[in-house]
Structures are given as structure tokens and as C-alpha cells.
Amino acid sequence: MRNFIFLAVLGFWMISCGTSDQNTKEETDRVPELTLVDSMQIDRLVVPTLLDYSEDGKHFLFFDFQSNELILTDPLGKVLISTNRSEDGPNSYKSGYFSACRFVNGNQILVDTYAGSFLYDFAFNLIDSKPAKIQTISQMLGDTPGFVVDENYQFKFGYLESDLDQIRVDDQLKMDEYDFLKVSNADGEVKFSSQVPRSVNYIQKPGQYMGYDPIAKIKNDRIYLQFMLTPAIYTYSFPELELLDSINLDPGENFRPTEPAPEQENFGIFFEDLKGSRYENFIFSNDYLLTWYLKGAPDEEVDALDRRVVGDEKYQAVEKKYKTPVYQIYKEKEKIWEGEWPIKLNVKKDLLYSVNAKPGEDPNSVERDVQTFYFYELR
């Protein structure tokens, strides 16, 4: 990751829409600034997805969803190697997709698929493979947020293949009894497990939803879980998975609870997801917690769409218009600000970043031969 000649401090205060002048003055005295601290450029024609970075910060792992290439770079963004390991061959992970790729053991890369776990060196030579003992549950193929690792353990949101008959009733997942939170060793042997908290939305209102897995982050001897449809962050001991605490995120009026899909509709989960809000990610930055959720679209506009298709032009137009982020900042458990910024942020572990645009810029304004990642902190 390269420090450019300047270190830019973004000159705007984060001010919530609709706040009175007096309250705004009081709030902004306590609200940190979003500060640009670093950037890197990758020589690719399309934006690759950041999958992980090594603990020593010397390697970054990306994936190009157009070419199916795994990309290993140095901290400057220089491509060290790129390769397609989804195709047939002795080094293939034998699948058209993966659920997650993570750095492990200091100098190896783990690719997790439905078929198994595949261990590579930094030249993407296959070192070892074994069947998956814990099957991951996620709607987000390619970078599942509910699979994280540390030097000794792996956390997955999933189930043992032998337990499949315990988690399904009438072809629906039964989320309220089984231990979907699982910590294993590197061999996939379960060491600790726990149930989903009772306050999670799909426990309170059972049914079919777009996603069930949480966003997970390991920090010291804690693991933090954010179930994307529930406005809370849960704190567990790690690796023991004992529930210790939770933070009520207390979103404003822009947050619309997501309802379960009508049973008779094949694509109902997509339209309910379009109506409702979901949390996208969170990060601890210095002494602050930053998180954000997407707004929901009005019922009448979603109900006017053709329920037989998903993703057509009208669907995408509603999605683009309404599914925009609302950011929240917390100091300990106190929310000190909530509002909208002119930027789309992303998170990978302890990195907060945007791609090809700083605040107020359009990432699609020009065609690019290189892709720029901008990194931020709250200060």
C-alpha cells in the first residue's frame, strides 16, 4: 500500500440531514472526520474484489469475477501473480465458485468451496485439499462475510453435513435451534459452537429471507457478529462463542425492517429485500465504531414491479434510486452521528476503503486502465 506525496484530510464534517443548526453544532464537535490515509493502484481493466490481506500487510488477495482470476499483489498494488484455478487441472479448486479465500499460516491461501477446502502456496500451487466438514450458509458467493480466521481457529456460519436433517423442515432452514455458529481448527474439526441470538429478526419472524449469515470480525479475544437484517452487533468470546454483550444500533427512520417472503412467490425474497433495509458492514476505527445500512424502497414502487422477473431495468432503477447507504458512528455504545455521505465505502477486516472515487466523486465518470483503492480512518 503506497503513501502518496500528500496525506489528504477530507474537508467535510459528517452532518445528518434534517438536524437543526443548534444540534448540528453540538454533534459535529464530537464527530470524527473521515480521513484519507493511503491508497494503492492495481493494473486491471475491471475492479477486482478485495478478498483478504496478510497479517504482515505484505500481500493482498483479489478476485476478478470476469476472468475468474485470483490476484496476489504487493502493498503497492503490483500484481505478483494472477491465475484461474476454477478450471480443470491439478491445481484446481474444482468448482465454478468459492465461498471465501483467506490467508492462513503466514504464507498460504485457503480457498473454501462447497466441495472442500483447498490450500495453496503464494504461487497458487495446490498443497493440500480435503472435504468440507462444515458447509457454509451464505447468499454471497465469492466473499462470504461469515467466514473468518485467526492463527489458530476458523469461524464459519454453517452446519455439519451429518446434521442436515436437523436444520430443515419442509425444505426451509430451521434457524432457532441448531448451532450455526461454529469454530473449528484448521482440519475443520468443530471445537466450539453456539446458536443464533434469539433477538435476530429471522428468529423473531420465521420465514424465508435473502440471507442468514452474519458479518464477522475477530478482534483480540472477541468475535463481533452483525446479522445483516437486525440492527445490532453481538459480542462473543473467541474461540469459546459465549455471548457477552450486544450493541443496539438504533437506526433512524430510514431503516425499514425486512419481512419474510410470501411462501407462494418464487422471487419473493428479492422483492422483500428491495423493500427492507440491511446492514452492509462495520469497522472499528481508532476509538470509534462505523457501520451503515441501506435504505428500503417504498412498498408501492416495489409492488408495481413484475413479480415474475428479478433484475430487469425497472427493478434495477428502483434499486439504484432507493438502496443507498446511511452511515452511523458510535463511541463505545453511544451513537454520536447518523446520516448520508457522498461516498460508497467498503470494509475488509481493519481496512476502510472506497474504489476509484473519493467523497463527492463519480467512480464511473471515466474509463480506467488502473483501479485505485483509497483507504480511510476515522480521526
Automatic annotation (TrEMBL):
It comes from the Bacteria. This is 6-bladed beta-propeller protein.
